[in-house]
Amino acid sequence: MSEPDDELYLDAAASDAVPSSVIEAMIPFLTEGYGNPSSVHASGKTAARALDAARASFAADLGAHAGDVIFTSGGTEADNLAVKGIALAQIRRERTARTSSMPSSVPLPAHYPAHRILISAVEHPAIAQSAQWLHDFFDFDVVSIPVDAQAHIDLDTLAREAARGATLACIMMANNEVGTIEPVSRAVRICHAAGVPVHVDAVQAAGTIPVDFRALDADTLAVSGHKFGAPKGLGALLARSRVAIEPMLSGGGQEHGLRSGTQNVAGAVALAVALHQACTGMAERNRSLVSSRDALISAVCNAVPGTNLTGDPVNRLPGHASFTFPNVNGEALLVDLDARGIEVSSGSACAIGRHEAPGTLLAMGMSETEAKSALRFSFREPLHNADIQRIAQALRASMTALHAM
Ligand code: PLP
Fold it and tell me: Is 153 in a helix, a strand, or coil?
């Protein structure tokens, strides 16, 4: 096989390049405005002003108020803070109620929610493992809400389980593995009607499709910068003040006491600038993304008979196409395509010598073998026709090389 001329990067859902405009916006806060934003001298105030401006811009682009924003090290930390922090705040409330007003033999009043966490069956490990941690250390019940064959959460089951009481429900806005956009607005209304707060993992959605935190009425929402052009290790949790959250990090009390640690001012500037660029002209860009995505889906399905598009065919992320392929292992296909200069993802957790089936596909009812044949193509800029043809040809060649067709 000849060496490819250039790589075609189709793994934007994993991470993406940082535009030079974002890097340039950060530099002054690394070289000149480098003060600690908590310091009271002039340099500190300069940094604090930059942080405030970044927070306001970032909040505005997510339909949030500046006071809703807790900057974190990314989506994983934001998800952990929401899930563990809300559950531990409940435990603190219960302890306070017990010690302050009631003899220990008296049960807590009925308005204290059950120690249950509802999570959709397709949540990212940052949510699923946080809920599992609450089970392991605090005996919380973790209730998995099933999804249909296109990964939409089952709202009837959600309503039934919410009615039984829960500390929190977690619903992702868009699925990372199959791109399905979830009915989060309806899920929030259902949970709130039962008095259950809702955390939304919007890591794949923010900067890609419109996110309006206040209109959605979610209680908390997680965002990650490296999905929309900011450097890795930057993100935020948006949180309404009506929901109590116990901090995970103890220290100087930055970020309203919810995330101690000196703030990354240059990082916050990068988050705000990258998000603003991603939101500017989003509707127009998404129209082009959708048309090149749909052209890619047709080309791939034509190139490899028996290919199956996974997730919702219409209501899916604009630059996201995911498939299962006949008679092939997705990991082997991924490696072969990589050698042809096409970089994609199997959408699953990979460890040395071990290829796990993507959890979302299993939750959608696929067999392990079918789920292990999955590949995900994700991009933030519309694809050229020549690129689409190159992908289709490479796939056909890879499938032939792997004796899958
Ligand atoms: N949630 C979802 C849906 C994701 O896709 C990811 C990362 O891919 C995360 C959470 C974790 O975000 P981060 O990489 O910023 O920790």
Answer: strand
